[in-house]
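User: Sequence recovery, please. Input:
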């Protein structure tokens, strides 16, 4: 039976060259059958090659909601999400990634190593673990860089999808946690590579505010009540240390922190006790 993958490419139409490169890299994939949709977040996709469908959203719904809207329009046993500035340098990337999932059914979400196509040094944040180590080393992880991720479709559906209220930032943490909550693992595949240019995340005007608000929302949506202050407290301490030399950024961060407590985070699905124990045994209890 052919390997069938539904692919969602999210874009606002602001990077046409990057978008073309990413779609071209998808169409070059070997030994897989793809159902590709390009979701225009507040934009009408145009000039797409044959075999790529378009979905225009009338306004920018945010990254998580935009991805979720695309899922509704594709079929396949697996789902792959690709940002419009990411691409796949190896035409066998997807079949090899599916091979990882098939070889180990305990893996419910896979993120590859991320490499800048121009050869710039990749930021350490692209390796989603506390002990970064060698970028080529594979391991279980508890968050993902969201720009190129693969899941079995039933596992994605069971998570409830991307966290739409977040709009931007940290939706990869919640998705990873909810995969773990199914008795599965999230996997960083250092032997597989996706390309993405090195870009500062602080280019987004609301970076610090949404970073803090969503950090609080992650806790309120996903943690048992006793763990909420521990998780938020640890990340507050980390941010204070990081932001000591940037008072303006720290002020924006604390505005988002307060917003996270006083606004509705949406659906609450606390992690099971067994999940917290599994995550702790695997090296990262959900308090940091």
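Assistant: Recovered sequence (288 residues):
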């Amino acid at each position: 039976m052919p390997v069938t993958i539904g692919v969602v490419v999210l874009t606002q139409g602001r990077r046409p060259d990057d978008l073309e490169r990413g779609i071209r890299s998808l169409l070059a994939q070997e030994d897989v059958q793809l159902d590709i949709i390009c979701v225009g977040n507040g934009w009408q996709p145009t000039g797409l090659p044959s075999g790529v469908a378009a979905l225009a959203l009338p306004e920018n719904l945010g990254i998580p909601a935009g991805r979720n809207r695309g899922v509704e329009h594709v079929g396949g046993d697996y789902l792959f999400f690709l940002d419009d500035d990411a691409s796949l340098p190896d035409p066998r990337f997807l079949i090899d990634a599916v091979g990882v999932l098939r070889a180990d059914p305990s893996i419910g979400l896979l993120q590859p190593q991320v490499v800048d196509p121009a050869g710039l040094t990749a930021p350490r944040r692209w390796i989603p673990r506390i002990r970064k180590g060698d970028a080529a080393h594979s391991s279980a992880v508890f968050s993902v860089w969201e720009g190129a991720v693969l899941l079995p479709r039933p596992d994605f559906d069971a998570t409830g999808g991307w966290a739409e209220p977040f709009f931007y930032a940290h939706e990869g943490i919640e998705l990873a946690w909810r995969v773990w909550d199914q008795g599965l693992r999230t996997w960083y595949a250092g032997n597989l590579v996706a390309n993405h240019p090195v870009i500062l995340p602080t280019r987004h005007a609301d970076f610090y505010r949404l970073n803090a608000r969503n950090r609080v929302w992650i806790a309120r949506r996903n943690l048992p009540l006793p763990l909420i202050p521990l998780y938020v407290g640890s990340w507050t301490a980390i941010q204070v240390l990081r932001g000591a030399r940037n008072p303006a950024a720290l002020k924006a961060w604390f505005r988002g922190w307060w917003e996270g407590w006083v606004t509705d985070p949406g659906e609450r699905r606390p992690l099971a006790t067994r999940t917290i124990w599994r995550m702790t045994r695997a090296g990262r209890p959900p308090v940091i």
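The CA atoms of residues 68 and 105 lie 24 Å apart.
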